[in-house]
Amino acid sequence: MLHTLERLPDDPILGLAAACRADPNPDKVDLTVGIYMDEDGVCPVFGAIRDAQRALVEEETSKAYLPPAGDPDFNTGMRALVFGGDSGALADGRVSSLAAPGGCGALRIGAEIARVASPEAKVWVSDPTWPVHMPLIGSVGLEFEKYRYYDAPSHGVDFDGMVEDLKRAKSGDLVLLHGCCHNPCGADLTLEQWGVIAELAERQGFLPFIDIAYQGLGDGLEADAAGLRLLAERLPEMIVAASCSKNMGLYRERTGIAQFLCRDAGNAEAILSQAKVAARRIYSMPPAHGALLAGRVLAAPALEAAWRDELHTMCLRINGLREALVEKLEATTGRDFAFIRREKGMFSFLGLSEEQTRRLREEYSVYMLGSSRINVAGINAANIDYVADAVARVIA
Ligand code: PMP
Q1: Residues 316, 265 share a domain
Q2: How many folded domains does the chain comprise?
Q3: 226 counts as catalytic
Q4: What is the pTM of this model?
Q5: 103 ligand 1 Cβ < 6 A
Q6: ipTM of this complex > 0.85?
Q7: pLDDT over threshold 90, residue 13
């Protein structure tokens, strides 16, 4: 029976990254996959994580399963990181959480719970959104609707369009929102706009489903969670999928967490029991290593301070690269690229056609997605001039 299945095409993003790796051009530049890279093009291990790992290797005496909800330090630390240490909802025991295999696992657990609670739910996703949302959430059987989000001509959020579309979201639907650093466009909501979304959710009764995979890489750990926290203050319920892949550099360790803001502590406990059962029917137990490292970092003030410093340095570097890229691109092309400065996190669309991105790849070995989404962190002092010149040539 297996022979009846056909070979599927490679993932388009990973396929482009592989093509870049195979490209012999010494000047090649990889701006495809969303991993943070430093000035040397290396995706580094955080010093605080390395220290935590050394201690863990020394002290770990068993590889027995963790409790089904995951490491308690990790859960406590992540709830405070996302909702804020002074969150009223946390103090009231209204947030339960389940460690998951990465932000992806958390999104899937959130979708499983939504499907059980509201089998006919529509999941409203931004246009565009991260393409992996569809298979991750859709495979539980939920259907999608799109809301307008990125306006290519103005390089910003079409907020009026978004609100108009979300007026059709009903009680029992989910609205998937990127907590910060929108993937793929980098255009985020203002706090005022988050307030409008909160009002809509209150009025219409839809459930916000927040995907926060880049907390700390836009404007800082607290500012990046401000929109989500505003919703948490005003709304009775919300699902949050958080990832430690980028902000703790734990990509391959598959470290994430599904969090459920509930009406009261009793509901929070009930939802946790549902989440455990959902995990049990998919992969059973959460992965331990990454969560134990993150838990140690979040529970030890010295390690946490060191991690916050390192993350802050990354954030500053990304924002510095955005600034430099605007200057270089404006100098080489004579066009306005100021929107790159306004956008947040690792991604921006350069606003190029698919044909122009193909020429960049084939003629200059500069790799980005066909949508012209770039990973800003793939730029460095050694390649920025080359990239800006190549972009100028393809749009000339
Ligand atoms: N959501 C978004 C928007 C992402 O970009 C990512 C990572 N690419 C994730 C969630 C989850 O990533 P992971 O499963 O590696 O934690």
Answers
A1: no
A2: 2
A3: no
A4: 0.97
A5: yes
A6: yes
A7: no
